[in-house]
Amino acid sequence: MPARPPRTAHARTVDDDAASAAIVHRIAHGDLTALGELYTRYHADVRRHASRVLGNSADADDVTHATFLALPSIAVSFDGRPPRPWLLGIATRLALRHRRGIGRFLATMTAMATSRRDETARDAESEAVAREEVRQFERALARIAAKKRAVFVLVEVEGMTTDDVARELGVPVATVRTRLHYARQELRAAMNRGGAW
């Protein structure tokens, strides 16, 4: 299986989270200017996540906008935790609903199959091998059921814990762990077969 991707680095502080949580509470009380503030803070995170789940930038834009447009009606359910995982959970649910075809896959997952070798030392042959590994990984990932793929992306790419993912998706932790286990197992098996299904 390819090298594990680097976890997404998020340098948000406790103060940033508290300020963002206060913004969500303002939205819950009808302050739509706060919606713009939250959008500015988290738009890039939500869009990147939606793109990974859907593998389609046009649909990722739709899901990103739908996530923020849903907030005035659901912000009352916000419990004050850091808003980023909450927003990613909303985006995941919307992305899974928005998905229009089984053939969609994660076009932005090339980082998942990056070779461990030093980039400068590669020759043309090793570059071709690396590109083929990326294609194999993308094909394998495309064949995993959407719910398993979403959990895999939230844990392995976004760096969320299985407890956080369960809370955000509204499913038991055991379900998240099971989906993650089978996603990893299916990816490993597919890569061992050379990506053929």
Explained architecture:
By secondary structure, this protein is mostly helical. Helices cover 66% and strands 0% of the residues. Helix 2 (32-54) crosses helix 4 (83-98), helix 3 packs across helix 4 and helix 4 packs across helix 7.
Structural class call reads mainly alpha
What is the straight-line distance between the termini? Answer: 16 Å
Helix count, DSSP H or I runs of 4 or more residues = 8
Q: What level of helicity do the residues show? A: 55-70%
Mean pLDDT, to the nearest integer, reads: 76
Strand content: under 5%
**Rg from C-alpha positions?**
18 Å
Shape: elongated
Core attributes:
197 residues, mainly alpha, 8 helices, disordered N terminus
Topology:
Elements: H1 14-28, H2 32-54, H3 57-74, H4 83-98, H5 124-142, H6 146-157, H7 162-169, H8 173-192
Helix pairs in contact: 1-2, 2-3, 2-4, 3-4, 4-7, 5-8, 6-8, 7-8
Concise summary:
The protein has 197 residues and is mostly helical. It has helices at 14-28, 32-54, 57-74, 83-98, 124-142, 146-157, 162-169, 173-192. The longest helix has 23 residues, at 32-54.
